[in-house]
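>> received
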Amino acid sequence: MNIIKYSYKRALQIITKKQDQSLFLVGQLLTGSMDLNKFSRIREYGFKVFSQWDEDGIIQYLIKKIPIENRIFIEFGVENYEESNTRFLLKNNDWSGLVMDGDKRNIDFIRSDHIYWQHKLDAVHSFITKENINSIIASRIKTEDIGILSIDIDGNDYWIWNEINSVKARIVIVEFNNLYGKDLAVTVPYKSDFYRTSEHYSNLYFGCSLKALILLAAQKGYFFVGCNSKCMNAFFVRKDLSHYIEEKTIDEEFNETTIRESKTAQGKLNFMSDREEQLAILKDKYLYNIASDKLEKVDSLFLS
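>> returned
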């Protein structure tokens, strides 16, 4: 019986490895054949190897369009790094980078993975806050001008990017909450120990709107170049590189996502797709309205 279990586990490992190898090869072929003048929207260049959706292809397109002097990335939170925005970049383009996650088990997994000794990767265990982010980066990254910064922490994303001054990445990727629409610049209020599921059972209360990120980007010296196909990751480029790629507007790029990730109070997916129904669940939660500079309830912002 143990032999059967071992054989089954080993078979799954072999199948998974071969699937990863096949995906990696497809990613290489798509990258090599990429026509940089074929599409007007970056999402059209998207494909998935290790990213959650199609960020791998978009990143390959951007680094072909934009000169990168120092091929260094920073990404957080990455969980165990098997699914991430920068793993294909690390393996295919031989970049180096810093990854962070708040769960020590994930960092231990990364450090035991073959990718850790095969590439110049630094994995740090830390729950990211406004108070620690710059010191962590400065202790690990010795140059300000890096290639990519990727932020996906399902909560304080707006506040963390706002705080970062230790690096000036040429490309920045930040997750946003599509549920908040395109008209308002809002974000969850800052809370150092923000954890998405404990803040609201539905898992819908997190992050910021796309408009909030676009306004913040302008303040930090960046411009908006587009979203991924699921319209939940936004891509920005540093303004001194504006002659390499076209700026996009929120009206050109925003669309309601097809992702249905809301949960019941019992923690099960309920596949809710109606936007107003989802917002109604959050009606008593507060968002920081950047325009009014105050906290306002979801009810008054979206449902009144």
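>> DSSP finds twelve helices and ten strands in the chain.
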